[in-house]
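Format is sequence with structure; example below:
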Amino acid sequence: MVMASAVAQPPKAPGAAPAPEASGRRRTGSTPRRLPYLLIAPAALLMLGFIAYPVLSVFYYSLQHYNPTKPWRNGFAGFDNFTRIFTQDPQFWGTLTFSLKWVAVEVTLQLLFGLALALIVNQTFVGRALGRALVFSPWAVSGVLTSAIWVLLYNSQTGITRYLADLGIGEYGTSLLSDTSTVFSAVVVADLWRGVPFFAILILADLQSVPKDLYEAAEVDGAGRLRQFVHITLPHLKDAIVLSTLLRAVWEFNNVDLLYTLTGGGPAGETTTLPLYIANTSVDAHNFGYASALTTVAFVILLFCSMVYLRLSKFGGESK
């Protein structure tokens, strides 16, 4: 009967429209493929506008002389701002050198202390939950509040220097932030307090996924704690360490709030990073054209260093 009904149906003419059921099935089948893109399109366009417009505007103003306080000098500058940066601005090279020093010291110390804390809180001991909360709590504090806390700690009248003077260490009225020999160490310690938990959180999360069987097999083979750390833990943490150090290096390079609040770039420009120099040039001097050129140079430096770092570290590749 099925074959008879199939034979009884007349053949379709060439170019005839498909049956209503078939066309309906095609429409409903194609709609779900496009639906996710349609749903995320508004958010994607909004993000593109918030990201693309500032970036493009910075590139545009880097080619301009733009100072709202001196409108008669505004106009197209070409590459004059970039020529001035590399040939006529010694402060640029000084701030760039200090920025690289700041990033190298901070990221290295934060990684070492963060790794040590992660290994400690990964062990089983009484009060481990409380210990983890205390270790991670500084990361939950905002940058402005962190700066306020350390401003009070370094205050010459009520801070730690007064209590040290009571113990016979140092003199009354001295400030660690006003002495060129101690200011760098002081700001490094302040930023370590907030930056170390970042590494501890990421490394601890990756430590939780290390198979316990590997450590048990290593113990059976007679491997000690140090060999287990070198041959099992570190290779497993490679991608987490590469990603965290890259992110933290970018953030430390762009660090403005802590240094601006604690020292303002002083004393005598000893703690002026390149982003802080850009902020002073734009906000204080109102030279937005030159500040945009400095920002463009900083963007290119970060982009190049990030690409080289990821390339050399072979991020995402299989560890041997």
Notes: The two ends are 67 Å apart (CA to CA). The longest helix spans residues 20-61. Residues 108 and 145 are 24 Å apart (CA to CA).
